[in-house]
Specification:
This protein is mainly α and about 140 residues long. Helices cover about 80% and strands about 0% of the residues.
C-alpha cells in the first residue's frame, strides 16, 4: 500500500497498522472514515477479518457500505459510552477508598495495629530469650 496515500487519508496513529493491509485505493479515497472505523473496530479484531472487509469493498453496494458504517459507528459510540461509565465508576471507587484510607480513624487503627504488632514481636523475642537461657 502506498504510504503517501495512507498518510493523506488516515490519521497518523493508524499509518503503521494500516500499512499491513491491502486497501483498495478507491475505498481509501472515497471512504477514509470507514477505513478508520474498520481499523479501529474491536468487533473486527482479527487482521484477517479486517482484510476481508477491505477485500469485500468492490463487491459492496452503497446501501451495504452505509450499513457497515452505521454498525461500526454505533459500536464505537457504545464502547465510548461503556468506557465513560467504567471510568466514572472507577473514580467513585477510588474516591470512596481514598476517603476511607485517609481518614484519621483509619490512620489511628493502622497505628494501633503497628503498636500491637511491635509489642507482640518484643514479647516473642523475650520469650525466646527466656527459653534459650533455660537451655
Amino acid at each position: 500500500m502506498n504510504k503517501e496515500l495512507l498518510a493523506k487519508h488516515l490519521p497518523p496513529y493508524l499509518l503503521d497498522f494500516a500499512s499491513k493491509f491491502t486497501i483498495p485505493e478507491e475505498f481509501l479515497q472515497k471512504y477514509a472514515d470507514l477505513v478508520v472505523l474498520v481499523l479501529e473496530s474491536k468487533s473486527i479484531a482479527d487482521e484477517k477479518e479486517k482484510q476481508s472487509w477491505f477485500d469485500l469493498y468492490p463487491l459492496m453496494n452503497e446501501e451495504q457500505i452505509s450499513k457497515l458504517r452505521e454498525i461500526l459507528t454505533k459500536e464505537k459510540e457504545k464502547l465510548a459510552e461503556i468506557e465513560a461509565k467504567y471510568q466514572e465508576k472507577q473514580e467513585q471507587i477510588k474516591q470512596k477508598y481514598e476517603k476511607v484510607f485517609s481518614s484519621p480513624e483509619y490512620q489511628k487503627q493502622q497505628q494501633a495495629l503497628k503498636t500491637a504488632e511491635t509489642a507482640s514481636k518484643q514479647q516473642e523475642e523475650q520469650e525466646a530469650d527466656a527459653l534459650l537461657s533455660q537451655i
